[in-house]
């Protein structure tokens, strides 16, 4: 029994070392947990097909390159073209899925709330400004609430896989403005999709990200 366990654990550790590849992270909630704001069907496609697809493509692309074995963060800061696009989409989706919750805090607390009130006037104003940025973004991309090195907040729109770290900024929240994020549930009504998404965005994540920046 002991040797059998030892053998299994040796094989597992060898696999982990040999793998040096990325694995899709499971959702931190059930597929139907965010319904009806985000349907089970949307989440299954978004997580299992789109996000997992980026992970698999990234693994394919980095095999045999100097990026193999590097952290995702290093890859997104130093790569370009297809490797950047897939690595950044992996990072962006993990960030996005992590901030959603079936039991969200609908407002930030204390220090982030103060900063938002000082700079934008209110939490409602930030939400509205981000929704508007999403509606105005031509094509696919992301809208971010970000903070700079001086603690100044702002809203950043990025095209396609673009992300705040490549602009020297720290993201606090993200809206996924790719059609795959909302088309099943909201069709062409992007503004409505963004407006509704706030019902499942957990500001506790933004608080944590703001405190740990
Ligand atoms: Mn997406």
Please give a quick description of this structure.
This protein has 213 residues and is mostly helical. The chain has 9 helices and 3 strands; from the N terminus they run ααααααβββααα.
Task: Please describe the topology of this protein.
Elements: H1 2-19, H2 40-62, H3 72-78, H4 81-98, H5 110-120, H6 123-136, E1 141-147, E2 153-159, E3 170-176, H7 183-186, H8 190-197, H9 203-211
Helix pairs in contact: 2-4, 3-4, 6-8
Manganese (II) ion (MN) binds at residues 46, 50, 93, 176, 178, 180-181.
Descriptive notes:
The protein has 213 residues and is mainly alpha-helical. The protein has a domain at 110-211: Iron/manganese superoxide dismutase, C-terminal domain (minor pseudopilin epsh fold), CATH 3.55.40. The chain contains nine helices and three strands; from the N terminus they run ααααααβββααα. The chain has helices at 2-19, 40-62, 72-78, 81-98, 110-120, 123-136, 183-186, 190-197, 203-211, and strands at 141-147, 153-159, 170-176. A three-stranded antiparallel sheet has the order 2-1-3, sandwiched between helices. Strand 1 (141-147) and strand 2 (153-159) form a beta hairpin. Helix 2 runs antiparallel to helix 4. The longest helix has 23 residues, at 40-62. It starts with a helix and ends with a helix. The protein binds manganese (II) ion. Manganese (II) ion binds next to helix 2.
Attribute tags:
single chain, 213 residues, mainly alpha, minor pseudopilin epsh fold, three-stranded antiparallel sheet, 9 helices, 53% helix, globular, binds manganese (II) ion
């Amino acid at each position: 029994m002991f040797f059998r366990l030892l053998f299994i654990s040796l094989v597992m550790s060898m696999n982990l070392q040999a793998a040096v590849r990325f694995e899709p992270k499971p959702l931190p909630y059930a597929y139907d947990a965010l319904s009806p704001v985000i349907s089970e069907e949307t989440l299954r496609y978004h997580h299992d097909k789109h996000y997992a697809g980026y992970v698999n493509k990234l693994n394919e692309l980095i095999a045999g390159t100097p990026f193999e074995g590097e952290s995702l963060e290093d890859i997104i800061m130093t790569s370009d073209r297809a490797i950047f696009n897939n690595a950044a989409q992996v990072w962006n989706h993990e960030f996005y899925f992590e901030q959603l919750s079936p039991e969200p805090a609908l407002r930030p607390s204390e220090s982030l709330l103060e900063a938002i009130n000082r700079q934008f006037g209110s939490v409602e104003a930030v939400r509205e400004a981000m929704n508007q940025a999403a509606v105005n973004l031509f094509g696919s991309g992301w809208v971010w609430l970000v903070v700079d090195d001086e603690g100044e907040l702002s809203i950043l729109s990025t095209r396609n896989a673009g992300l705040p770290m490549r602009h020297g900024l720290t993201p606090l929240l993200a809206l996924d403005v790719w059609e795959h994020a909302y088309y099943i549930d909201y069709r062409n009504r992007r503004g409505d999709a963004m407006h509704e998404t706030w019902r499942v965005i957990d500001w506790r994540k933004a608080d944590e990200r703001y405190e740990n920046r």
